[in-house]
């Protein structure tokens, strides 16, 4: 399967917020790597994952109570 880099605007604005999604993002089988730029005003979440992983990523972040929007 092809991999793709996704970018999302989020409200993951600190290390504590990031830690709330970390376990599920780390353990999702279709996600290879991810990071959040908390210094960016739009709190950009960058994810390298299978090309069909967008919904999985959004579901994980939303399930933890955070906002997420594809860029």
Automatic annotation (TrEMBL):
One of its GO terms (molecular function) is metal ion binding. It comes from the Bacteria. Residues 3-69 form the HMA domain. SUPFAM superfamilies: HMA, heavy metal-associated domain (SSF55008). It holds the Pfam family HMA. Transmembrane segments: none annotated. InterPro entries: HMA_dom, HMA_dom_sf. This is HMA domain-containing protein.
């Amino acid at each position: 399967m092809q991999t793709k880099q996704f970018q999302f605007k989020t409200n993951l604005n600190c290390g504590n917020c990031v830690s709330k999604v970390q376990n599920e993002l780390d353990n999702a089988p279709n996600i290879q790597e991810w990071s959040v730029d908390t210094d960016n005003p739009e709190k950009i979440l960058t994810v390298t994952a299978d090309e069909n992983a967008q919904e999985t990523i959004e579901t994980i972040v939303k399930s933890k109570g955070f906002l997420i929007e594809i860029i």
